[in-house]
Amino acid sequence: MTASSRGQLRRFVFDANAVIALLEDRPGAAQRVRRILEDASRNQMSVLLSAVNWGEVFYITWRLHGEVHALEAEAKLRQLPIAVVAVDRERATRAATLKQKHILGYADAFAAELAIERSAWLVTADPEFSKLGKALSVHPLPCHEK
Structure pTM? Predict the structure, then answer.
């Protein structure tokens, strides 16, 4: 967590592309994600990740790199100060509301919901989150060129 201007620690939520940026060592983005994780570890805090986004990372890694790589990535991620937050009926309803109101992707709505609910900064390279305006604090990562 990085220090805010008032000396308090910021809490962060990762969306799937922040985690994938780390796993794929994307220039610029991976370094920023590592710094957030190092700060979290140093301050004995966890970065938050919705269980839906955890599944999204696993699925995308498998699709792009195969099952073995996805399982290896999962094992690496389990070693990091990332707390996976379960989804219950209430969280799913709030995420669905965000999806409908702001035309977000389904998994993206869970990342946004978690960040809003925990008053955290959402770490992402996805410009779609700007649709939420001031309701969501975004910690932007450099966009990945495909």
Answer: 0.90
